[in-house]
Structure formats: structure tokens, C-alpha cells
Design a protein that fits this description.
With 446 residues, the chain is α/β, with parallel strands linked by helices. Helices cover 33% and strands 20% of the residues.
Length: 446
Amino acid sequence: MPAPVPRQRAIPAAEGGQGPVAAPNESAQESPENRTAAPEAAAPSATATTATAATTPAQLTLLLIENDPGGTPIVPDLLDQAGRPMRIRTARNLTEAERLLTDDVHCILLDLALPAPGRADDGDELAVLRHVLELAPRHAVLALTGADDTERGAEAVRVGAQDYLVRDELDGRLLSRAIRYAVERKRSDSAERRLAEGRLRAQENRRLERGLLPTPLLDGSPLRFAARYRPGRSRALLGGDFYDVVRTPDGTVHAMIGDVCGHGPDEAALGVELRIAWRALTLAGLCGDQLLSTLQQVLEHERPDDEIFATLCTVDIAPDGRRAGLCLAGHPSPLLARPDMPARLLPYDNNGPALGLLPGARWPRMQVELGAEWSLMLYTDGLIEGRVGDTGERLGQDGMVEMIRRRLAEGLSGEELLRTAVNEVRDLNGGELTDDVAVLLLDRTR
């Protein structure tokens, strides 16, 4: 909490000029119309009015909470920074204050001698202040105390008041400056708190993202791995796309990529659950149709709605790296590139249904030849469903294949290839993609 500040140095040096005499104080019995209306002044020209409205802050409103409002006679003389009389509302107790505490009140001047309603006499000398701070957490608060009670005023600042004032030392200019200072300090404190909260959220989000995105388990494998991930939701950490790569003790490398339909946090959470389940089942020795059937059961139990489904592509690469098994559950077929042939899509004639669509479905495992040296790219449909310029046409798989062929011919590979490909798809779309994008690349070189 802020430490107490000496009376004179706690007030900014800038002072408001002289202004018209303030209107009489508002009381708890006045009508809402009277409480919010500003005192009338001489009407300026239209040009002057426009310039003033553009540069002058809103007129300040003070809520004075004191059992004897007449005991602070200088209150009617308060001026804001523009020299205008402040709007004053007065309340004799906290019950009246709660009724008068609206959003247009900027500062509360509180007599610390008031009793706090509904609290037992527990010896807390700042009970009334704590009550007001709970009641008005977004408002600036000035504590008003007597000359023989400055220690309680200093404690009030530590508890949360912006400043404390000694009644016998007040004059109109000092109180006006103190109110303006308290309002600005409250705004500054609120902005600083929001900034600190934003930093904490960003740190937590980064930790969350690191925890949810997979760490490939490829120890002992000669294959190189690269991946790119871009959620479609604005400012989101994760979307419904997910991927993973693990190497089992027999030397087989298993890779997977999937897409839960939808883009919300529920879909993102379900994607993480499916990825973790896939890794556990794969390390337990399941593969192909048996693994996908079990994943479908997980999906059916965990999805928030019966309409939710997920597409999936899995490959298991033999220890020698020359062949692989491929299972497709409603998912686009991977792209294979080799030095001796142009990049092409792997066969997808036996593509099974997406997970969660058909109870008792089966997913055949296809055997594919990879060769001695190759690059295998798995991706989600966010990479191929972006628009191409003003035509409104989708990039599609054919467009993606041509793009990858061109980038490979330029000598791109690994992370650079994926980063360039995703950026090109975004540029062709004319802006950020609305769908999630996940791409992973496995390379085998001699």
C-alpha cells in the first residue's frame, strides 16, 4: 500500500484559477436532476465551446460523507482544474452515501469519526473507511481527520485512501488541489494495476501454452521435426487443432495431427485431451484401428455436445524410416516430398470417417513407401481453406502442393519452410486466417 505523504508535498503544484462561486451543496434529499446538473455560467461562443469540450476534462463531483456537513464550510468554494465549481453531494451517514454514490462521482471525502453500519465495536478505528473502500473500489477516497488524530490518517493511507487531510488546516485551494490529486492518483493506480494484471495474465498464458503444446519424444531417432501452430480465435492460446510425435521403444516413430470441429475454448480443451490420450495409448502399444476406436470412445465421453467430431491423421514410421502405416479419419492426406519426385499427396482412397460420427466405425491402415530420403508434412484444413486473392476461391490441396513444391525448389526446409508456407497462405487470404492452422514436418536425410 502507498505510504503517507506530507500534506504540502502530496498536492500537485499546478493550481486552478479563480472561477465563479459554486452552487449550493447537494444534499441527500435533493432530486437526481438537481444532483447531476452543473452550475450555469456565462455562455461562450460556439467556437470556444468546441475547443473547451475537446481539451477540458469532465467537471469533478465530490461526495462528502460527514455527520455535520456544515462543519466543513470551505466545501462550497471548491474549484476543479479548469476553475469551475465542483459538484458537491453531501451525506450524513453511509446509508445516504450509498444512495448518492453513482458512477459520476470522482472523489469521496470521508470523516473517519463516522461509525460503520452493521459492524460490532471491535476496536477497528478505520472500520468506516474499510466499508467505504468495499463500497466504492473504483473511487478516489480522501480521509478527513482532526489535528490530534493524524496517526489514524496515516494509517488510512496505508489501508487504501489516496490521502488524508486535517480539518483545521484546510482551506479552499488546498482541498481543491487535494481532490484533484486524489482523483489522478486513483486513475494512475488503477492503470498500473491493470497493467500488472495484464503482465501476470500474459505470463500465465505463456506457461499454459507451453504446458498444452506437445514436446516431441524423438530421443534416439534420426528424423528431424518441425511444427507451426496458429490459433484462429483472436488472442487465443490454442484452437481445436492438435498434434504430437513420439518414438516407441521398438524404434517406430508415431506422428499425429487432428482437428476438433469448432474454434472455442471447449474445442481447444477437447483437442488437448485427445492429444494426451493418443500419446498414452501409443506408448502403451496401440496402433491403427484399435487406437482410433479407443480415441473415439474418449471423444464421445468428453465432448460437450453430441454434434462435436474430430478429424485425425496418424502415421507410424518403421524403424528403418523407409515405409509407414497411414490412417485417416476424415482428415486431409499428408504430403510427401522426395528428391527423385515432386511433392505429392499420399493415397487417401481408404479414408475413414471422422471420430465421433459413426459408432463402431473402422479405420483401415494403409502401407506407404517413403524411400531413403524424404519430407513428410501433416497439416490441418486451416492451411488449405484460406481464400486466394479477390476470387473468393479456396487455396485447396492442389494449391498447397504447388506452393510447397515451389518453396522446396527454392531450397527451403524445416522450420523455414513451414513459417514461409503459413505466411504465404495468410497473405493470399488477404489477412489473418479464421480457422486454426497446425502443420508438422518430419524429414529423413541420408
